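Box 3.1 A note on notation
Throughout this textbook, protein chains are presented in two layers. The first layer is the amino acid sequence; the second is a token string describing backbone geometry. Keep the layers aligned when reading.
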Amino acid sequence: MRRIFGIAGIAAMVVAAACNSAPTTSSNTPAKSAYTFYMVTHGDNGTFWSVLQKGEKQAAADLGVTVNYQGSNNDDAQECQFISAAVTAKPDGLAVSPHSQTVLDCAKQAAAGGLPLILINNCGVTSSGQSYIAYSGAITCVGQPESAAGQQAGARLKADGGKHLLCVIHEATSTSLRDRCTGAKAGFAGTETDLVLDNAKSNVSSSTATLQAKLSADTTIDSILALDPDVAKNIVEAAVTGASSKAKIATFDLSAGVVADIQSGKIDFAVDQQQYLQGYLPVVFLKLYKSNANTVGGFDTVKSGPGIVDKTNASQVASLAGQGTR
């Protein structure tokens, strides 16, 4: 779990061989680009997605391709519109984060029209048990199995002495967040409660107040799992302090602030899915698919995580998180 740098090394060898914002658009256009790829996500320009974008930008520069990136700020309808626009533009390939079943269906339509598709970030299964990859017709998915990652987090919090876990869901429509909490419940094997704070990152004050009230009303809650680094820093920490709670805090995903708080003891640990790779690797895989008919993953997930960052290894990633690549 704590040897979390292996995939980055693999990515380097492959190359050597070959929250709170409006929707965003960026692109990289190296000279004489051979291929153009689109990357459409539910990104909000928060600390998580800015790292993913650095990954896609670096891959574009390394490989000499064009990547048009668009983030929908967790708006499913907007993300589907971006996917539709990508289909119309007829790029050489498309990467999509399937934020919800709605977006997954839109990505499926794009692949059915012949556009090479790679899923990123949310590598789940449908309600009928079919993998997102098989359902959509994607080549692969780059991300972490969310239920398994949640299970690891729950088991760790249990091992750290937890008896009542509160899992904070900050986007109501996100299937991946619910999968994380479902996994955490299984791993924790004790009392677990979900708290939905919809659009929490856009409503920090009210979300903090709601969580603080929950902690004040139920003092048996001794463990809190945030599912986003900004939620952990800006909402959970403030609510714990305001309620004078002694609950341990854990979170999904890294930021420089989260790593610093792990080092100081404010946060117990973070589940690291290495989102830089979720931006970088899809560009590599699409380039190899177009130029050499390569497929990666055997129609299964290429796992970028989970890993655990805690006091034992936080110093190793602190400087990289400060540079925005972890």
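The radius of gyration is 19 Å. Confidence is low (pLDDT under 50) at residues 1-22.
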